[in-house]
Amino acid sequence: MVSGARAHSRVFEVVADLIAAQVEEAGPLRGVLRLRWRFYDSIITQRITLYSHSRRIDFRTEVDWHERQVLLKAAFPVNVRATRATYDIQFGTFERPTHWNTSWDWARFEVVAHKWVDLSEGNYGVALLNDCKYGHDVKDNVLRLTLIKSAISPDAEADQGRHEFTYSLLPHAGDRRQGDVLRESYALNYPLHADVVRVPQAGNLPPRYSLAEVDAAHVIVETVKKAEDEDAWIFRVYESQQSRSSHVILTFGQPIQEAYECNLVEEQCQPVSFTAARSAYR
């Protein structure tokens, strides 16, 4: 549910003026319901997408926003009882309480996170994913995500006009690890992109090819970039679930000449051994 809050007050207004509803898709792979809402001088258009292959429910949203000092949030009351919520950050997670019992709790009424926040009990949970919004809060059993702030200082025209973003609700069995919340969040943020390339002759790549891949589901190849000071490539890999492994094999799609381990600022490089066949690094 999307809600708007007038600034300088604790009055919340539910966006309830539905002016259009239409089923856009009803196929074997997904269904799409298009909703159009009016909120004062603004129009919110949402395409709610359900998939046959995933529990994820996407809310693809377009907003023509003309409010000032109004905070727009998406709120989901869920049937989950937990005293702590888990938030995603780069290369890790952290937890915060779901109660506001102390002045410290009230001061942390909103939490910065990246791709998702998850609320899980013993064998069930719900995650709220997003592709570009970072202000979250969880109070008791309500997951909320800040969508538009529309402040007037230092820019009186901040957030006015057109916005596009997607957030998703992901119910899952078990906790965030068993529910594969992290990989679903990557699927939302980096959707599969397909291109038809017409060339005069066949290429030399195999039918299946990866620039790099790992043999452990809990290890993520998060970033691939050019090195800052030399002709080399940087692969940033991290363990995402606090799980132990005796070893993990990182395999590159092209032969490599040398391999080094370094820190995040690409210093303190130490040579590491690798197997030349398919360039596997353990």
Structure in words:
- The protein has two domains: 2-189, Golgi alpha-mannosidase II, domain 4 (Beta-galactosidase, Chain A, domain 5); 212-281, no CATH class.
- Helix content is 5%, strand content 47%.
- It is built from two helices and 22 strands.
- The strands form five sheets. The protein has a nine-stranded antiparallel β-sheet with strand order 3-4-5-6-15-12-11-8-9, covered by helices on one side. A six-stranded antiparallel β-sheet has the order 2-1-7-14-13-10, with no helix packed on it. The protein has a three-stranded antiparallel β-sheet with strand order 16-19-22, with no helix packed on it.
Question: Helices, strands, pairings?
Answer:
Elements: E1 2-6, E2 12-14, E3 17-26, E4 30-39, E5 42-51, E6 57-65, E7 70-77, E8 84-89, E9 92-97, H1 103-107, E10 111-112, E11 116-120, E12 124-130, E13 135-139, E14 142-148, E15 161-173, H2 181-189, E16 212-214, E17 219-226, E18 233-239, E19 250-252, E20 260-261, E21 270-271, E22 280-281
Antiparallel strand pairs: 1-2, 1-7, 3-4, 4-5, 5-6, 6-15, 7-14, 8-9, 8-11, 10-13, 11-12, 12-15, 13-14, 16-19, 17-18, 19-22, 20-21
